[in-house]
C-alpha cells in the first residue's frame, strides 16, 4: 500500500514537473514571438543608414582624394580602390562564417562596426595632419606623389574599413529579415517587399552623403569631409546596440561549412552503397535538424542523387541516436548542400557584371572633372555628386516597381512579388548593357567638343560640354540596380537554407570581390597593352585616352554574360521547402514553399 502511494506521488511530481517545463517552454515561445517586428527597424535601419551614409561619404569621392591630394596617377589610384573594395567583399565570407558558426549576427555586426569606425578615424586623422599627405599640386604636372609612410597610413585605414565591412555586409540584411516572418504565408500577408524598402532606405542615405559630404570634401576640406562620416558611423553603433533588447536573435547553429563537409565526406564514404527506390527510406531526424530548420524542412529532390547516399542507413547506424554525422547525414542537410550547388551558376553571373562596372565610377568622376559643372555662375556640382542621379533613379524606380509593376504583374503571375527574382535579375543585366553603350557615346562626344576647342592637351581645362550629358548613363545604372542588385540579394537570401543565410549573403559580396579583382586585372592589362601614344586609359590626361573603347569591351563582356545567365536561369530549380503546420493547420505540411522570389506552385 505504501509503495503504491509512493509511486502515485512520484507520478504526480513527474506530471507537475512536465507541466512546469511545458509552461516554461510556452512562456519562452511567447517571449520570442514578441521580439522582432517593425519596432526593431528604427534601430537596425538607423544603424545601416548611418553606416551607408558613412561608407558612401568615405568612398564616393576618395578617387579625388587620391589623385588630387595624394597626387597618385589615375590607373593606380583606381586599382587601389577596386582592390580594397574587393577585399571588403571577400572578408564578408569570413564575417558570415563567424556569424553563422558561433558569434551570431548581432555581435558580429557590433564588433565589425567598431573596427570600421577605427579605419575611418585613421583616414580622418591622416587628412588633418599635413605630414601625412604630400604638397599640393594644382597643375597636376610633375607632382610629388605620396611617400611610403603616407601610403601606409592610407592602406591601414582601408584595411580596417575592409575588415569592418566584412562583418557588417553579410549580416545586416539577414539580421533585419530575421525580425520578420519570411515564410510563404508571411510574405504573401504583407503588402510590401522587405528588400525593396531596405534598398530604398539605403538609397536615401547614399543620396544624402553624395550631396552633403561630397560638397564638404570639395569645398570645405577633407578633414570635415571624412570627419562627418566618421561621426555618423559612431552614431550607427550606438543606435544598433540601444535596440538590443528588442531584437529576435537567432542562435548560431554551428559551422555551416562543417555541415556541408560532413555531407560530402559521408557521400564519398558510401559511394558504393545502393540507393533505396523510395526516398522516404533515407535518413531523417527532425529533432536533430530542429535548430537549422525553424521555418521548415527542405524536401528531397532528385538532383545530384549521388549525395543522397550520405543518408543511406546501414545496420550499425540504425541504432545510434544521435548518429555520427561524419558517417550519416539527414535529408535536410543534404538538401542544404544541393541548394548551394544549384545557386552557384546564377551567383557566378554576377562576377562579370561587377567586372564590367568595377572602374566606371572612378573614370566617370574624372570625366566630370573636365566638363562644365556650373548650375549657376557661382555654383559648381562636385564631380562625385553626379552619382545622385543614379540614386534618384533607383529610388524612383523602387517606388514605381513596388506600387505599379508588382500589382500589375501579380494579376497575371499570381506571384506575391509580381515577377520572380531570376526574371528581375535578367532585366537588370539587359539595362546595364544599354547604360554602358550610352557611356561610350557620351565619351566620344566629350572628346569631340574638346578637340573643337583645342583642349585635348590640357587635362585641367574645362571643356564647354555640360556635365549633365552624363546623367542618362547614371539614370540607366540606377534603374538596372532596381532590378539586378535587389533581385540578386533577394535571390541569395530566399534560395539559401535558413541556417546559411549569412553565408549566402556573403556569396553576394564574394561575387563583388571577385568581379573587382578581375576588373583590376582587366584595367591593368588594357592600360599596359593598349599603346603608349594613344593609351585607352592614360594616367593623367583622359582627353588623349580611348575610354570609349574600354566601354565597348565592357559591353561585349556583358552581352556574353547575359547569354550565360539566361541559360542558367532557364535550367534553375527552385528550393522546395516543407513548412510546418501552425495552430490552425495551415499551411499544410505537404505544401512546398514557393514564396515571392519563386512562384506559387504547391505539391
From TrEMBL:
Biased composition (Basic and acidic residues): 13-32
Region Disordered, annotated ranges: 1-32, 579-603
GO MF entry, a single one: transmembrane transporter activity
Ranges of biased composition (kind: Polar residues): 587-603
InterPro entries attached to this UniProt entry: MFS_trans_sf (IPR036259), POT_fam (IPR000109)
Bilayer topology: Multi-pass membrane protein
Record localization: Membrane
Segments passing through the bilayer: 80-99, 106-133, 153-176, 197-216, 222-242, 381-401, 422-442, 462-486, 507-530, 550-572
Gene3D superfamilies to which the protein is assigned, alphabetical: MFS general substrate transporter like domains (1.20.1250.20)
A Pfam family matched in the record: PTR2
GO CC annotation: membrane
Keywords: Membrane, Transmembrane, Transmembrane helix
PANTHER family named in the record: OLIGOPEPTIDE TRANSPORTER-RELATED
Family under the similarity heading: Belongs to the major facilitator superfamily. Proton-dependent oligopeptide transporter (POT/PTR) (TC 2.A.17) family.
Protein name as catalogued: Protein NRT1/ PTR FAMILY 3.1-like
Origin species: Cucurbita moschata (Winter crookneck squash)
Amino acid at each position: 500500500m505504501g509503495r503504491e502511494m509512493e509511486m502515485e506521488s512520484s507520478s504526480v511530481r513527474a506530471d507537475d514537473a512536465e507541466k512546469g517545463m511545458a509552461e516554461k517552454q510556452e512562456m519562452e515561445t511567447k517571449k520570442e514571438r514578441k521580439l522582432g517586428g517593425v519596432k526593431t527597424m528604427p534601430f537596425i535601419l538607423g544603424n545601416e543608414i548611418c553606416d551607408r551614409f558613412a561608407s558612401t561619404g568615405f568612398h564616393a569621392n576618395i578617387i579625388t582624394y587620391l589623385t588630387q591630394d595624394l597626387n597618385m596617377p589615375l590607373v593606380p589610384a583606381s586599382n587601389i580602390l577596386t582592390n580594397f573594395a574587393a577585399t571588403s567583399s571577400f572578408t564578408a565570407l569570413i564575417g558570415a562564417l563567424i556569424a553563422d558558426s558561433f558569434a551570431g549576427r548581432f555581435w558580429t555586426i557590433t564588433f565589425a562596426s567598431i573596427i570600421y569606425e577605427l579605419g575611418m578615424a585613421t583616414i580622418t586623422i591622416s587628412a588633418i595632419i599635413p605630414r601625412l599627405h604630400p604638397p599640393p599640386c594644382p597643375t597636376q604636372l610633375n607632382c610629388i606623389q605620396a611617400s611610403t609612410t603616407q601610403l601606409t597610413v592610407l592602406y591601414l585605414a582601408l584595411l580596417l574599413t575592409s575588415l569592418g565591412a566584412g562583418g557588417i555586409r553579410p549580416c545586416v540584411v539577414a539580421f533585419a529579415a530575421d525580425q520578420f516572418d519570411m515564410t510563404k504565408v508571411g510574405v504573401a500577408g504583407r503588402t510590401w517587399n522587405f528588400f525593396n524598402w531596405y534598398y530604398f532606405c539605403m538609397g536615401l542615405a547614399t543620396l544624402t552623403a553624395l550631396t552633403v559630404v561630397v560638397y564638404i570634401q570639395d569645398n570645405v576640406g577633407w578633414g570635415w569631409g571624412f570627419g562627418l562620416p566618421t561621426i555618423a558611423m559612431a552614431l550607427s553603433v550606438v543606435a544598433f546596440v540601444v535596440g538590443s533588447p528588442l531584437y529576435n536573435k537567432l542562435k548560431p547553429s554551428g559551422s555551416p561549412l562543417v555541415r556541408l563537409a560532413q555531407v560530402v565526406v559521408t557521400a564519398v564514404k558510401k559511394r558504393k552503397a545502393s540507393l533505396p527506390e523510395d526516398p522516404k527510406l533515407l535518413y531523417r531526424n527532425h529533432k536533430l535538424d530542429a535548430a537549422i530548420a525553424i521555418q521548415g524542412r527542405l524536401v528531397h529532390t532528385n538532383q545530384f542523387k549521388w549525395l543522397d547516399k550520405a543518408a543511406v542507413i546501414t545496420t550499425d547506424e540504425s541504432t545510434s541516436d544521435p548518429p555520427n554525422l561524419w558517417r550519416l547525414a539527414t535529408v535536410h542537410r543534404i538538401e542544404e548542400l544541393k541548394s548551394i550547388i544549384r545557386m552557384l551558376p546564377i551567383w557566378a553571373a554576377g562576377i562579370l557584371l561587377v567586372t564590367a562596372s568595377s572602374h566606371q565610377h572612378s573614370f566617370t568622376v574624372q570625366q566630370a572633372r573636365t566638363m562644365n559643372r556650373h548650375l549657376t555662375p557661382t555654383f559648381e556640382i562636385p564631380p562625385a555628386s553626379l552619382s545622385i542621379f543614379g540614386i534618384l533613379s533607383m529610388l524612383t524606380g523602387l517606388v514605381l516597381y513596388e506600387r505599379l509593376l508588382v500589382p500589375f504583374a501579380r494579376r497575371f503571375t499570381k506571384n506575391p512579388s509580381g515577377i520572380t527574382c531570376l526574371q528581375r535579375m535578367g532585366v537588370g543585366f539587359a539595362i546595364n548593357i544599354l547604360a554602358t553603350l550610352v557611356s561610350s557615346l557620351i565619351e566620344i562626344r566629350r572628346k569631340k567638343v574638346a578637340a573643337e576647342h583645342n583642349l585635348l592637351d590640357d587635362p585641367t581645362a574645362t571643356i564647354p560640354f555640360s556635365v549633365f550629358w552624363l546623367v542618362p548613363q547614371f539614370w540607366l545604372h540606377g534603374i538596372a540596380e532596381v532590378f539586378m542588385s535587389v533581385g540578386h540579394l533577394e535571390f541569395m537570401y530566399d534560395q539559401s537554407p535558413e541556417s546559411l543565410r549569412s553565408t549566402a549573403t556573403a556569396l553576394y559580396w564574394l561575387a563583388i570581390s571577385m568581379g573587382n579583382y578581375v576588373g583590376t586585372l582587366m584595367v591593368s592589362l588594357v592600360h599596359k597593352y593598349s599603346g603608349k601614344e594613344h593609351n585607352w586609359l592614360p594616367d593623367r590626361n583622359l582627353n588623349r585616352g580611348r575610354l570609349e573603347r574600354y566601354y565597348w569591351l565592357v559591353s561585349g563582356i556583358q552581352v556574353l554574360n547575359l547569354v550565360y545567365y539566361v541559360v542558367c536561369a532557364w535550367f534553375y530549380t527552385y528550393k522546395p521547402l516543407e513548412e510546418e503546420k501552425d495552430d490552425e493547420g495551415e499551411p499544410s505540411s505537404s505544401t512546398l514553399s514557393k514564396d515571392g522570389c519563386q512562384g506559387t506552385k504547391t505539391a
